[in-house]
Amino acid sequence: MDEEFGGNLKQQLKKLFDESLKLTVSDEHGLEPLVAASDAKFRKLGDYQCNNVMGIWSILKPKCSQFNGASVLGQAIVSNLPTSELVKSCSVTGPGFINVVLSAEYMAKSLEIMLINGIDTWAPTTSVKRVVVDFCSPNIAKEMHVGHLRSTIIGDTIARMLEYSKVEVLRRNHVGDWGTQFGMLIEYLFEELPGSDNEVVTTIGELQLLYRKSKRKFDHDPVFKEKAQHAVVRLQSGDPVYVKTWAKICEISRTEANKVLQRLQVKLEEKGESFYKPYIGNMIEELNNKGLVQESDGARVIFIKDFKTPLMLVKSDGGFTYSTTDMAALWYRLNEEKAEWIIYVTDAGQKEHFDLFFKAARKAGWLPDNDKTYPKVNHVDFGLVSGEDKKRFRTRAADVVRLIDLLDEAKTRSKAALIERGKDKEWTLEELDQTAEAVGYGALKFADLKNNRSTNYTFSFDQMLCDKGKTAVYLLYAHARICSIIRKSGKDMNELKKTGNIALDHVEERALGLHLLQFSETVEEASTKLLPHLLCEYLYELSEHFSKFYSNCQVNGSTEETSRLLLCEATAIVMRKCFHVLGITPVYKL
Asked: Which of 341, 338, 334, 327 is nearest to 373 (CA)?
């Protein structure tokens, strides 16, 4: 049956070893096998390895004299392994390492079935049904800049990984639309442009200029600062005069941000800080009834053990804070949206805030005491983007780099490279423009995503647009090359999928087939650990496997043409799904 040929090899092997463990040590409960793809140095011994037999034996040793050592236990586990078409052979080496060689016939059949039924049949399965991913989240009245790049791209990829895994993802743009900056802006507008009815400000550039002026005045004029703080309270209290001006500012900012998000092909639903205002009162009352809210210098706070600063819910002037809306948003997401997992994607500088906020939620009983049980929360932190001078990435005028300028530059450079290769003579203007955009934006995204998100990285257009090495350009070329091979064959691939068979006889055919079948477990690991770079690593290694295969195995015109064309098609399909999950548009010719 088709169901026996699934995409997640690791999960299938784990089920087999689970069964074997129950038979081998039936009296011992809670033991779990640890199955992983073999490291390079063990690949000659097997494709996968069960490598925690020594740990299991150390648990059994005081209670059971049946097994004289981990290797003996390993042999017993192998003997009790259920018969499966997946496994060709097993061996035990060293202190109980169980090496598994997979059946090439099984792998070939799995690839054939995926080609017919589609790659969505390889989607990982998860117990989680609904997840909130909170990402991007720019402050209103500011243009999106390079600092928003990482949150937007990483958050979008995490959302896409979960969506591929058939999880309902609520993509949330928790914009800062309710804080101190509005007091500054509105008060400045009222003082400097009285009676203008807000029509004087129509663009994000004008708004940003006003923001800088109001911030300067806020920092240096104590009287204005006090007025601005009162303005925030009046806004948060619903004063219609302040709300009208606030709504205009939000509209201008939203329009500008949406232009950037559309170009990045990122979908988000805005539910900013202001959305949660109706829930704040009841939320604070609930926390107060639980005895968690205390008075401190006129403010209402929650003290958390081991934190010097308490979580502030209401300031001494009656205004709300970032923490107030974060707590209200979490309450809403748990109780109204019924989310089981809430993921926050922000820079590492906010780590302490999230540690405090999560501990307050646990103290309130909203979340379990451990971070393994659902509902759960995670802070997906990331490092800074630096320029090639290793300093924070800025323009020559020391301004923050606008995100829209980065996108323009990436597309312009990409188009120039294509024209240099004469593509303007071969393609229509529309094809040239679309390809330049796909390559330029893809390069920008992949250059970010390929890094472990917790590290800083250096921004370099030259490196990201290079057609060699671990870049989107190289990978898009690899995909276009595969498409060209298939086109040149002249074969009807839809017909070939129905009638042809795959054979993994050559060592490079087998290596490519195995790597293709590890796609599902890679997505599962990347989404579980919230590490998109694992999928980037997989995609790069896939292109390397294909390159070795193509160098050693003639495709068109060979006696194995049908099988190898199907392997080409399977590779292209998996690459396209990787691109989709990473938010990159594939190209079919370059």
From this structure: 341
